[in-house]
Records
---
Amino acid sequence: MKEQPATDSRIPPRSRALDLLRQMIRIRRFEEKAAELYSAGKIRGFLHLYIGEEAIAVGAMQALRPEDAIVATYREHGHALARGTPMGPLMAELYGKANGCSRGRGGSMHFFDASRRFYGGLAIVGGGLAIAVGLALADQLRKRPSVTACFFGEGAVAEGAFHESMNLAALWKLPVLFICENNLYAMGTALVRSESMTDIAAKAAAYGIPGEAVDGMDVLAVEAAAKRATERVRAGGGPSLLECKTYRFRAHSMYDPELYRSKTEVEEWKTHGPIVSFEGRMREWKCLTSEDLSAIEAAVRAEIDEAVAFAERGEWEPLEELTKDVYTANVNSET
Amino acid sequence: MTYREAVREGLREALRSDPRVFLMGEDVGKYGGPYACSKGFLDEFGPDRIRDTPLSENTFVGAGIGAALGGLRPIVEVMTVNFSLLALDQIVNNAATIRHMSGGQFGIPLVVRMATGAGRQVAAQHSHSLEGWFAHIPGITVLTPATIPDAKGMLLAALQQPDPVFIFEHAYLYPTEGELDEQAGAVDIRHAIVRRAGTDMSIITFGGSVWKALAAADQLATDGIEADVIDLRVLRPLDMATILASVSKTHRAVIVDEGWRTGSFAAEISARIVEGGFYELDGPVQRVCSAEVPIPYPKHLEDAALPNVDRIVQAVRSLVSP
Ligand SMILES: Cc1ncc(C[n+]2csc(CCOP(=O)(O)OP(=O)(O)O)c2C)c(N)n1
């Protein structure tokens, strides 16, 4: 339950550090592009950006294996990218094209990727926790050594689903890692204005679940904590909860005028954002040069250009397929 | 054998024949099932496969969805349809949507059973018939077994479906008796059935009301009015062909539905008859539904609130004079 100091994390090999940095930059630039495309009218609907929180998806994903399952929220672009879903289908999904990762049916809030056990992209706050419990139950009953990682915001801890899921996961000793991305605000409601007790890791303790709070701006700290927690889960220790303390630099969604917090508060958090601070530390360790950075940026830019082209090339799903995949084929989906 | 035993037979056969099948819900284990449908199962199949859950409807239904995503074949029992309201988030937002929203990548082979209906003087929070609401939702299948073979066979058929299936067992039916062939297995879950053939009237119903409709038809027959009694069996996908074929023969329809009349499933059937069979009709479609009240506790009021044989007979008589 104690905060994990950043200094706890040991200096990683240069190639690993570069990879973590590259992944965070990739998510950041993808979303900046998404915001731009949103303004240009290419992307519609709700668009929730993860900017500022990249260290969590990237750090936590290091602890997960291909056979593990992931359940995410509507703010899941970073999780899908960190999980390895190629950028093209993700961008196409934002466009709503048929070559999107969910055939364009879901859009920004509903990325799915069966080949990577990526179960959403779920937009009902707290709803994913129950699904994660069930996925973990399936793994447990089938004696598969998988862990289900379930990402959710701190707003979800007020939902009954959070408490029901903690209870059931602990009761049945299920292999779930609950990862709370505590960015302090649920839309415009600060945690202190909605919770009588704001220590989320302590709430886990009430269910007998080991909880740990970690600096969610520090990719290495998240990675280390996630590895500790998943090892415990894998060893049959039942569920664990990780509270990652973070901040979103952008509005809740593209519709949010951000009246609930001050510019100075946002600017202050940005000074120790996950990318800028990790870059700083890499420079201190002498494992990052300006050339490295420009190489990363150039590669990411090329990848994004290709993803946008992929999305632009994509077809709209034919209208005849409107009722496809409501039921499995051969069932009359008209009624 | 009783309806309850038929459900139990279905469950046992499912658990025996497929190791991916497990049952979970409130009191399904130690207690033996709130309606005794899983009596003895905990000893027979063990706690991994017969799982007592906490009182957490939304999460154990959600866990069923997750388990189905994870490759199992969960059967989730919700004690009473009224409590399923606590699980509506998972049902409407996840069970029914994920296949579509994921572009067909993920299916949810989940079976949810629940007791529905009134007639046992358990008052308004344990007596409602909400299956018509569930039938509103694309992405799920809604079954209403009325007979002993359907009580067993629909469950087995549901387990073969790759998509979520909801089975509404009318609580009044559990102790009813009937025949079940030893070989009886999965049944067709796409079609309605004509339970009694007649020429003068189509009585269209489902679930617990099927028996009331049949009794009404017997009574009407003594006056020379012969009614078709259609047991819809499946509310979604709805088998309109059987309904329209019957109406084309009888030219009159009475719909019996234990739900409230306003916004009822009976309203949907009525509208569809008008859409597809208007020119076949010799009179207005009539409905016999529950009174527009939360179901009351005292027997005389409860009886008065529900469709009954007399009201069905009257509705038919208002359309056909013998
Ligand atoms: C059950 C439910 N209630 C309300 C909403 C509307 N809503 C969408 S996001 C959000 C805030 C959630 O905040 P949090 O869980 O902290 O996640 P964050 O957006 O900060 O990542 C709300 C209220 C919803 N999607 N689901």
---
Amino acid sequence: MKNSLKALREARGWTQGALADRLDVSRQTVNALEKGRYDPSLPLAFRIAHLFERPIEAIFEPDTVPAP
Amino acid sequence: MTSELDKSMGDRARTSAYHLDFWPGIVGYVVVLGAVTVLGDLDGTSPWRFLWALLPVLPALWVIRAVVRHVRRIDDYQRGLLLRGLAVGFAAAMIASITIGFLDVAGLDVPLAGWIVYGVGMVGWALAAAVTNR
């Protein structure tokens, strides 16, 4: 899954560590999220959306769009 | 902006908590192992030698407790990495155990079989952790 987490973080001038503390996860987890190696759990996705004040689908983009 | 390789405050707190849990167990294990080796008379005939031989299990249980508490503290992603590493170590230990078991059935006496199984399991865990944490 693609995401705009890195761009959103950098726009706020936060390090990965600073974002990790705000999300209560490890810096390693933030790094994995940004590189697309890890898709967050639903609670973590909601925490990210809440932190950046955007809907989840504005931050995360599935690789394939499900058929309607 | 500081390096992106910085550790978060949460990382440091979790690491400190883990070290506080883990190291007393390891130090205790080494101390007990030393005491068992020197005082246990494991090669002797005293019935107490069995109790001496079981003594290192106590600090080992403490270490297991530390790992379990660490697993509860870390986030989902790290938990997945850690448990995958443990699963690889467990599988390696099981394969080693089965292999040694069959060799034993075939009449080949493998010395220090228990330690071999332990070593293979630990090496499997360490290698898996190194690969998944790249």
